[in-house]
Amino acid sequence: MTKTTYIAAKDRYSNSVGYNYCGNSGLKLPRISLGLWHNFGDVDDANEALKMIELAFDHGITHFDLANNYGTPYGSAEKNFGKMMKEHFASYRDEMLISTKAGHDMWEGPYGEWGSRKYLIASLHQSLKRMNLDYVDIYYSHRFDPNTPLEETMGALSDMVKQGKALYVGISKYPEDKAKEAYRILHENGTPCLINQDKYNIFTRQVEQNVLPLAQENGVGFIAFSPLAQGMLSDKYLNGIPDNSRAAHSYGFLQKSQLTPEVMEKISKLNEIAIQRGQTLAQMALAWCLHKPQVNSVIVGTSSVKQLQDNIDALKNVSFTDDELWRIGELG
Prior knowledge:
Elements (H helix, E strand, L loop, with lengths): L8 H6 L4 E3 L6 E3 L1 E4 L10 H13 L4 E3 L10 H14 L7 E6 L14 H15 L4 E6 L8 H13 L3 E7 L3 H13 L4 E7 L11 H7 L3 E5 L35 H16 L4 H9 L5 E6 L4 H8 L9 H10 L1
Helix pairs in contact: 3-4, 4-5, 5-6, 8-11
């Protein structure tokens, strides 16, 4: 038995991370959601992964964000999460919000990526098997497919709701005009879009111009991924590039070339503001993402229990003065 067995619900939720309604729906999202993109695959520490899930759940983080190709190898994050669900959390399923996605490369051949009905439905069936679930709470189209009619992609999502294999549907990283069309189609199908997931952080603020207003106009929630800009918005790079950091590798989304002297100076100045607030830079960056009322939740990806706890502690100070917001905005 794990410690989660002994935690009463009233204790989990009396000291929780807090919740926001997702758009105009009746569904509440924890202000911090746990992403399983990294650190939950077969190449990662299974014990630490379980401890992170436990710590998250202990603090009322009910939302666990996955995708079909998360983990190394592809699918291993869902498989390992499914094993934890079966062995440790089966009795807590109705207290958990589990999302998955399909759209990026998953398997070989012509049907293993993008947005066809064939791929989306087959992928969800695979995901449910890996996670030992009868349904997911949210199923996303992970990216817009320029070669498949949106009616087909959105129709597949709608049918998964109507068949009881997903409770809600969402989109991720869609261009503004395609998001608007997706919202319309899903509404007409009787399965309105619950949520839009996109990148948002101090250094990446494009969604403020059109994505957030459009979602609000359509009653769609918004959840932010990459709130720490792949680790740039943390103390990791304040004194250079550590050998074991993401930027030290030739692969991945964060490259050394992005950490220019100008960017490093901005990180240093942002860190000074965070210190004045009594926070780490990472904590301030997470709190900052939540200052927009349209942002219902932020997804954190952590590699240790300590890092997750530090992220949760960001919620101790989520208020910003106008001067702080201006200074941060100037550095974004």
